[in-house]
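Purpose: get a first structural picture of the assembly so the mutagenesis plan has something to point at.
Setup: two entries, given in the order below. No constraints added.
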Amino acid sequence: MRSPLRGRAIRALVASALALSTVLPAAGAPAIAADPLIFKVGTTQEIDSLNPFQAYLYSSYEAWILNYDTLVGYGPNLEYAPTGFAEKWDVSADGKTYTFHIRSGMLWSDGQPATAKDVAFTYNYILNSLKTDDALTLFTLTKVSKVTAPDDLTVVITLTDPSSLILGAYTPILPEHIWKSVTPKQANADFANNPPVVGTGPFQAVEWQKGQFTRFVRNPHYWGKKPAIDEVQMIFFANQDAMDQALIKGDIDAARQILTTQFKQVDDDPNIIGVNGRSPLTGFDQLAYNLYDGKGKKGIGASTSAVRDPAFRDALGYAIDKDLLVKQPLLGFGDPGSTVIPPALPAWHYQPPASDLRKFDLEEAKRRLDAAGYKDSNGDGFREDHEGKEINLNLVTPSSQAYYAQSANLIADWWKQIGIKMTPQVLDKDTVTADVTPPEAGGKANFDIELWGWAGAADPDFLLSIFTTDQIGGWSDSFYSNPTFDKLYSDQEIAPTQEARKAITDQMQAMLYKDAPYDVLYYSSELQAYRTDKWHGYTLQPREGGTPFFALGVENYVNLQPGPEPTPAPPAASAAAPGESAAPTAPAPVPANSSNTPILVGGIVLLIAVIAIGMVAMRGRRRNQEQDEE
Amino acid sequence: MGNSYLARKVFQAFLTLLFVLIVNFLLFRAMPGSAERILLRNPHISAEQLQTQRERWGLDKPVFPDQLVDYLVTTTQLDLGYSFQFRGQHVTDVIAAKIGPTVLLIGVGEVIAIVLGLALGAYSGWRRGGPIDYGGTSIALILYSMPSFWLGMILLIIFSTSLGFFPGHGMVTPGLANADPFARVQDLLGHLILPGVTYSIGYIGQYSLLMRSSIIEVLAEDYVQTARAKGLTEGRILRSHALPNALLPTVTLVAINLGYIWAGAITVEEVFSWPGLGTLTVDALDSRDYPVLQGIFLILSVSVIVANLVADVIYSRLDPRVRT
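Result (structure tokens, whole complex):
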């Protein structure tokens, strides 16, 4: 007898097959007739705002450097370059007056002239806001007292003290005719700077679908070389796996923050190059010791005075194997840490001499602890502090990175071997932030060690400022307070030449290494990847070991050319392979990823086997049932 | 009938809702990490600026009773406040932008799951012991027990990366805003397939297993024997007697599941970067965006409570024994 369900089922199947057939061909065909050249870059970090004053995330920085120019740009090796508004600049003899010569003929993307007046407007907009309740503090203009534009092509900046930091100010120049009607209060809060954004940069944001993508269209009035790319799309992925798959499939052309576990697979793909980069923006990860002196008040500061003893911190530094930390939690993607200015900033990084470096040596650590007076008097395997209390260090670390927790566990293990008890606690980011807040900012600084990290910048000023006494209650999370260091910090801000400044910053880094308010664990890599079959001409910034995107400029967006790298025709082979060389501009879809196939085949076989076993088992049971019923 | 039954159920639903609202409000306030510190993200601001912002967001008043009463009053007026994270935007706007994609995804997923699940389950139960029963039940069990994010990634790798049939992320291809409607619908459907299938697969298993056992139970009832004895065709028995009774537990399950539409299938949305309420919830949690979180949970609570109420009413309509 025919089951009525069968008819219904068949009709449903036919209907869904019809629906599918309308969809399948669409998936491959290009849907836009005009076919602009689109470059797609994937990120798992959505931009937080198109308004630069509310842009705190890397992706947002990338967005605004596409839209806007700074006054002074950063060159291929992070040197100051005339790739911004300024073509050249001079300094007065006393070092307090900088004169910038603006390139002529610049236009905003809406056609209005872009001049020195816009530079002066932007800088004064920020400076004037600092005196009010709505200070715009995201961009710092160090030591600036006055900014004027005597004519359309000249900007004169007067400083309170001679300082070269103004050249490195990574601040977008905004159009006066748009921003003059935005109050600083609005800039800080409600003004979203919705698309279409008006800027002088090579690409302007024209559409932002929150949570999905941001589209940037080529700026027809861009002053520089005309890019071959017509449109940049920054595509947001909710998870890194999906992004890596999209890159492998060819749905996107480049991606940022490839998973360490997938880097090899991505890099092995013949059409993709993985970049294990050292970006100046990556910074470092560290153990921050709590030096806050609660002066005996209960519940404030570290659990033991030992943490405030430099000899104690120094000894603990010998019981950390940084090479192993890079190899295991970081899977090899990073470098062992030393000083607080990462080697990714070669002009500023200070490498302590080998004799000063703390090598991994558990015996040495034990010796130093003994010498500093931390002994195990009661024989339970753990040392006591100078007050006789057993040392039990509480380490807090955020759950945002898996390698933080892994590193903390490894360190706890090493320290146990030298007789120091340490208990790691993995908490969410905001709880950690709350835990390390000092009384000056309403908290209790109730922790011993914090394992976290800092993003970097092109100029070392910010990372050094964290350790000044001024920043306690601000950015400081170790509460280091050293008047000598503070003086050196002010000195380096007004050093007359880069060499003089470097001499001071080297001293500062050496001082921090010795005193060890931070033990810098490692400099993790910035993993990016790009496809080589659709575009060529990629460069890294900095050239040695840098990254192609999310650095400090727009090089690749401007310079990339469509198609794979053209292979030069072999000169001697004249009669050889005809019609070679010229690469197709419309790339064919990349075929099945070979490394996946055996796993997939294995998986499907396993699945069929399980179903077959299930069926056999059920048949057996049913036969028994039938026999029971008879 | 049960006007009193209905009234009683509605009243219970209302009380539950009120209770849920208060608990939601308190739970969020109890989370560590202060909202303004995260929002302002910039320790350079002075204490005065911090205070101005606290006042602006109403965080300076005591939680009990000021903030709570404030919350209850404005909620009943459907003013859900301003988002912390998306400054200046109404919570209702932030959420409204994401409701569409979620309802689309889950609506389509549920429809597929209901149709296929009920059909498979009914047929398996009807032809118990047949090949479709064995195959179908084993597959249903396997699918039911798979974690959806894992399944989603597998489908992504097979059908998107390797075979290239479908895109693996997002809801639309960027840049199609000006293309013709047919192309846009095609694009949307193409993006919808993988997440929709991922979402529905688990539920197909659930519905088919439940339907199957329901049908088996019903088929053993005396009235089915009687109907056969009376000479009715199998089809007639199935349609008029077996299915309606077997549907009861399934209808309840479906109604309850539909209540969760608003929760957004968080894991499926995260795998496929589908811009719905699921990803919004995760982002709002990350940035302690209390107003948005409360808005989302309000909607979720209302929909679950309403769905349960509807399930109760439908059940009472279908099953006369329940109406008193």
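Residues 44 and 50 of chain B are 10 Å apart (CA to CA).
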